[in-house]
Design a protein that fits this description.
Elements: E1 10-11, E2 19-20, E3 32-39, E4 42-43, H1 50-60, E5 64-70, H2 74-84, H3 88-95, E6 102-106, E7 109-119, E8 132-141, E9 145-151, H4 158-165, H5 168-171, H6 175-208, H7 217-234, H8 238-245, H9 254-320, H10 335-356
Parallel strand pairs: 5-9
Antiparallel strand pairs: 1-2, 3-4, 3-5, 6-7, 7-8, 8-9
Length: about 350
């Protein structure tokens, strides 16, 4: 959040002799969504600052701290980084959005990046320009703390925190249980989003193969773009989740690893769905292009047929439009009706031939 300057950032009358006004610092509480201390799976009452929370936990030699941040700036996160000993490279990544899902270890701290997704409501997939919206969630995991940094407005964890507060037995497993809950929460959203996208693709598929449908290949490419965005969120996460399930670090106890295996299974299901979506959309693109080509060929045959029919009266009229004295039946009183009859007969014959061959 940028600093808030005063009017023009200056104080005084005019610019001469004006005194610059220092930007008003934004308190850390503006970025902290929640800060809680958990001991024996129970949340301790009261409001805590990050320094008070970690002092309380380390004084008790049990429990952990869970701090939630939303799009902090560098100055505000610096105090938390110093208090919890976060690595500067991980802090830099946490401040920058547009990170790929990954898992990195810095000394005694794990840094996990996951992509959050949200399904964008729309009237029809054949007219929508956006179907999937992505955000980012960074997690610092230490021996006695969990710090989450969110980017985006749809990746809130308030509901998840309430559910965990009501499940002390789960929180007794330590901060790794929170990381698992976050990963499971994100992957469950993946499942929900892929299920709704599957319905959209079914609608689009029905439109593609419906007679005289107006869907274009461009709209299918837009859908492929949305699936590609979802794929970039899902596919890279498989390796970090698998490493957490296989005992990559002692920060994740054995009891929690089994839960990560379940998350990995769900993520595999999502990955398979996304890959199937991409293949199906490629097939729909090919079908749409083939349908357009077939329609163009049909139109060309109709145009060619009518051009051939129109050529007959044009040719005969062109011949009789020449100023020659000696033309067949030129001065015969039935010559004009005869020519009209011949033109109509030939045109009718050509029409029946083209209609029989399916050109008209």
């Amino acid at each position: 959040m940028p600093a808030i300057p005063s009017l023009g950032g200056l104080r005084g009358r005019g610019n001469k002799g004006a005194v610059p006004v220092r930007p008003v610092p934004v308190p850390l509480s503006a970025y902290v969504v929640d800060c809680a201390v958990y001991v024996a799976g129970e949340r301790l009452p009261g409001r805590w600052t990050h320094t008070e929370a970690i002092k309380e936990v380390r004084k008790r030699h049990e429990g952990f701290v869970w701090i939630g941040l939303h799009e902090p700036d560098a100055d505000q996160i610096q105090g938390i980084a110093e208090t919890f000993g976060l690595h500067e490279l991980a802090v830099e990544d946490a401040l920058e959005a547009h990170q790929r899902p990954k898992l990195e270890r810095y000394d005694d701290t794990l840094f996990l990046v996951v992509k959050t997704v949200r399904y964008v409501e729309h009237e029809s997939p054949t007219t929508a320009n956006e179907i999937v919206e992505t955000g980012e969630l960074m997690v610092f995991l230490g021996r006695d703390f969990v710090i989450t940094v969110r980017h985006g407005n749809h990746s809130g964890l308030a509901r998840l925190r309430r559910e965990l507060d009501e499940d002390p037995e789960r929180l007794q497993l330590g901060p790794a249980a929170v990381v698992h809950a976050i990963a499971d929460h994100v992957v469950d959203h993946y499942l929900d989003v892929t299920g709704r996208i599957e319905n959209d693709i079914d609608v689009m598929e029905a439109q593609v193969f419906a007679p005289r449908s107006q869907i274009s290949a461009e709209q299918i490419y837009l859908m492929k773009r949305e699936v590609l965005e979802l794929r970039r969120a899902v596919m890279p996460l498989a390796t970090p989740v698998q490493r957490l399930a296989e005992g990559y670090t002692r920060l994740v106890p054995d009891d929690v690893r089994s839960y990560f295996r379940d998350v990995a299974d769900h993520l595999t299901t999502v990955s398979e769905r996304v890959a199937a979506f991409d293949e199906l959309l490629s097939t729909l693109v090919d079908a749409t292009v083939a349908k357009i080509s077939l329609q163009q060929n049909t139109d060309m045959r109709k145009i060619t047929s009518w051009a051939a029919i129109i050529t007959v009266p044009t040719m005969i009229a062109g011949i009789y439009g020449m100023n020659f004295d000696y033309l067949p039946e030129l001065h015969w009183k039935f010559g004009y009706p005869l020519v009209i009859t011949v033109i109509l007969g030939i045109c009718l014959l050509l029409y029946r031939i083209f209609r029989k061959n399916g050109w008209l």
